[in-house]
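Morning. Coffee machine broken again, so started the prediction first thing and wrote up yesterday's gels while waiting. Chain of 195 residues, entered below exactly as on the submission form.
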Amino acid sequence: MNGKPLTAEHGFPVRVVTPGIAGARAVKWLDRITVQETESSNHYQQRDYKILPPEATDSDSAEKFWDQTPALQTMPVNSVIALPQPGDTISRTAEGMVTVEGYALPSGDGGPVVKVEVSTDGEKWQDAELIPHPDDSKWSWKLWKARVKVDVGRKKTIHSRATDNSGATQEEQSQWNLRGVGYNGYGLADDLTIA
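Came back before lunch.
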């Protein structure tokens, strides 16, 4: 809370932060705590934040998978392009370069992020600069930036992909699942116009 007292909206009187565990598992308000040998029967533990198999294509076909699929506990490695935004018109430097900026986060306890790469064609990749921060840790998001050469034109696409210390790397496309949970396909800024 940046030096301010914890408010009720943020879990007062105490909040436990569990690095590496998906935020969906960070419950804010508890009436009681029980220790049990089986997964909680709570709706959100049983029917939410689960990566259902591709065979679950709609609510009806998903029914048989809810109690067979473990709850998502850790998020996969991921990166996001923050600038430029999809659909932007961006200007090149005299050398034909544009600046791309974003952030990346490690998988579970696989951090820190050790590499982010950027591509303008999905085949050739160049390393982005990882921006250091005094509070960096294995759990931290990592800001990054890169300067890439791009030809003038419309409908250009820029991708990013991150790798963490455990070796986990983003995939071109995340495996489809009914709810889109755990997505970790390449970061994307598409439909760009380069001036």
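Strands lie at 78-83, 89-90, 97-105, 113-119, 126-127, 129-130, 142-149, 153-164, 187-194. Going to sketch it on the whiteboard this afternoon.
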